[in-house]
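Lab notebook, bench 4. The sequencing result for the construct came back, and we need a structural model before the next group meeting so we can plan mutations. Quick request posted to the team channel:

Model the 3D structure of this chain.
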Amino acid sequence: YWYQAIRDTRAMLRSDTLGVPSEKAAQSLEQWIRLGNILGLEMAREKELFERRAAQMCGWKECQFHEKAPSAPTRACAGCGEVRYCSKACQKR
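Done. Here's the predicted structure in token form:
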């Protein structure tokens, strides 16, 4: 979840849709990165692990396959190309 927190905070800073002042979010981002350095995490490796896991899970949070891998491969959203779903029904939800 370390890489996901960094990725999401960076995205919020770029889109300027924060619910908190941007300087607070930037400080939070710096602290997340610092924590990863202390723990010996490598950004590239953590990104790879995150993307591999995300490619296997359904993006709809209430789906049974959001936390465990489905029996069939997930497919990328035709709109954003990033979020993956196990079925059309989950994508519609």
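Residues 18 and 24 are 10 Å apart (CA to CA).
Will bring this to the meeting.
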